[in-house]
Amino acid sequence: MKHVSDVTALSLPESVLSIGSFDGVHLGHRALLSRLVDTARRDSRPAVVLTFFPHPSVVLRGRQPALYINTPDEKAGLLGSLGVDYVITQTFDAALSHLSADAFLDLLQTHLGMRALVVGEDFALGYRREGGRIFLEAAGLRRGFRLEIVPPLMLDGEPVSSTRVREALRSGDVRRAAAYLGRPFTLPGTVVRGVGRGRKLGIPTVNLGFWNERAYPAPGVYACWADVNGSTHPAVTNIGMRPTFDDGLLHPVVEAHLLDMTDDLYDRDIRLSFVDRLRDEQRFDGPAALAAQIGRDIQKARDLLGA
């Protein structure tokens, strides 16, 4: 898979293309991408995905915080693993948002040789989404490309979407998020120094520093798997404001206790995969009561993870 940052960086004679945000690369995306790759292989043409950063809603509607499910590089890696040959992470800005649908198609055909466009039912391109299905069907006849519309993937009677993944995370329902994603939600980052309270309690934790634009689960305690340098360890992860200690935090912190591991992990990269929610974050009468509850959390996590 080749990953580039601008449509103009490529010059393909022919391609089968899909366009979208693809944040999370969830099961709905995977159904569409399966169609893309199948069509590309049948036509003996490369499969190309054009995606955007920042997300159009950040530029057009000022969505804050952005709450991306993946970084652009993570997304490109996931797309490549599904058989996509080229990923373009195009900068989305005001100039691009004002490009007409016809001008956008000129760009795609000049640089990508688009011969088929595989998109979802609600797809539209160009200024104020002027390039919807009827426009694209007519344009395809004029310009010589085929339009393929893929219906949404339904789960429990509702379409799978990145919005629903974020909603599940905001409610702490990591099982639901995993059902939409087709895999556990993961949160990667770097271990940063905390205040060291966990070690004093006999339950050392690692504090995770991560991209501040990334979505993460609601405050609470979770059973997780932690990947460190290619090895996987069961973990109990707390997300929240440490109410027992009144630290006056402005933002929730993410801290994980890796079961049966005491290595110094400062400045190491770590990835947490969220399996289930154990309980809400709560205030305890003191450190001893908190430590006793964490002991119960650890046992519950061992049972859930088979660890």
Q: What key phrases describe this protein's structure?
A:
307 residues; alpha/beta; six-stranded parallel β-sheet; 10 helices; 14 strands; 33% helix; 27% strand
Report on this model:
This protein is of the alpha/beta class and 307 residues long. Helix content is 33%, strand content 27%. The chain is built from 10 helices and 14 strands. It has helices at 27-43, 56-61, 72-81, 94-97, 101-112, 133-143, 162-170, 174-181, 197-200, 287-305, and strands at 2-4, 15-19, 47-53, 86-91, 114-120, 146-150, 154-155, 158-159, 186-192, 206-209, 220-228, 231-240, 253-258, 269-279. The protein has a 6-stranded parallel β-sheet with strand order 1-4-3-2-5-6. Strands 9-10-13-12-11-14 form a 6-stranded antiparallel barrel. Helix 1 (27-43) links the parallel strand 2 and strand 3 (47-53). Helix 7 (162-170) packs antiparallel against helix 8 (174-181). The longest helix is centred in the last third of the chain and has 19 residues, at 287-305.
